[in-house]
């Protein structure tokens, strides 16, 4: 800001604070916040002190405290970032004090925003940073957007922030999800996207908190079960309500959680718990249970999820009552197929082999749903009520993979946890170990993994006795493992050990059930089933090459829904790449991401990446560390931009 602009900024704030009549110039949450900044926080708009940042030990301690939230939010943050990426944004998660716990950054923007204080450990509550997206969202408990000169402190006016609250299962504000960018970048739909992502994270936290309890998913219309709009109630084996999601309160027309918590489920719906359980077992899998609200007799449709341990207690088959999680994170195997013959074959084979001690290798390009498939397969298997443990071989730094997988004994090395660690293989004992991005497993560890698979025992680091394990192994890769074997980058013996049977998931552009999938995901991404695709828009979506597959499809539809103003998505609403010759059937075109190359921001990112990779002599792990992204993400970007290491 120039001196003149600064002076004008100060004058405007003073005028609006002094004269309530002028306050219509800005939203009331902005003028209220400015008042707090002056009267309560005693801040000066031109204060240019460095932002407060916690020391690394304190930040580590906070991150540990919020470990579960961080792991539940990480996918959603990545996904949100992909939707706003390319236009210079960072996605940030803060705790209830406004401390930045995690962020996914736009490489080109990182330096600029870093200087604005958008760093892990930085405090963004209003007391320290004045009016800003995260701090003002924490104060109001509501989603807010704060545009550049709506920030109180001059030094923050370079930013535009959209932030939404995340509430814990007790209804207390636990975190804020925020998208920030430099002010010149338009962010019209960011608030809707942030709001939806925050809601998804909140739902995940709820499910995680009550995973050992009964969960009743319900909506007044059956097709909205398993979408963001469904309500979820958790209750104990006596039928007493323990918790309710925000959508549940909305669906039931209840203002506060306390009204519901402690009530018997039969006081909320016209059915006792025992009858609900019988009904879930009696109905055909996937068929919703019809219910009525006790207070107003409104009709609802529901599905019941029983705690894993309840199988013997209630005497009914838990698998029959298993339902899908909102956001498709726990789809049933059959729900992954909408008629495509290759998907149908993969599902058929997987079902036959999963309980036969055959290792399955899922292959297919990024975003086709390998992770979802593995999880659904575990849910189908005899081990469904045992752990499903994912190891992302590309996302764990090489130095940590060994302890992460095999665990370590107490005091095995300096810096190790005092109690030792069990390692993911032991954690998966009895259940399924999912080795994602197995093609990125470092060679020395491949030998150790092979030994575990052959001998079915693990020796944790620093220990001398082995622990016996019994598990199903599913691995996945987007890389051609056979070629890696030929280049000496992957052990042949491990390849054959993991590939008991290879299951190939087709790229989206080749699926024959694309239309059904698009329609399904359009519903999945809406709280209300209002938004429709016009035929021409559907035609363009069907013709597009989808280099990012279902992940890209979900992100695209989510963005279109958020932007949609009249409940119809027309061809004109689609971005330029959908109107170009897509070469949908030309795999070459899809794999190199031709449309990316025409986007100036994408080509700038490509150039930055290439320069960094060259200067680091193509050490992908190092470059990923420098950019604070996972190797997985970096590989994805390289593939998207057609960047290949020199031979
Ligand atoms: N059938 C489906 N219905 C709804 N969403 C789906 C479906 N299949 C995949 N998705 C969504 O697409 C995204 C990508 O899925 P997933 O992570 O399983 O793909 P992947 O092939 O493992 O990708 P990568 O190789 O990049 O890890 C996720 O958000 C997932 O929820």
From TrEMBL:
Ranges for domain Sigma-54 factor interaction: 336-562
GO molecular function: ATP binding; sequence-specific DNA binding
CDD domains: AAA (cd00009)
Organism superkingdom: Bacteria
SMART domains associated with the record: AAA (SM00382)
GO terms classed as biological process: regulation of DNA-templated transcription
InterPro entries reported for this sequence: AAA+_ATPase, AAA_lid_NorR, GAF, GAF-like_dom_sf, Homeodomain-like_sf, HTH_Fis, P-loop_NTPase, Sigma_54_int
Alphabetical keyword list: ATP-binding, DNA-binding, Nucleotide-binding, Transcription, Transcription regulation
Protein name in the entry: Sigma-54-dependent Fis family transcriptional regulator
Organism: Acidihalobacter ferrooxydans
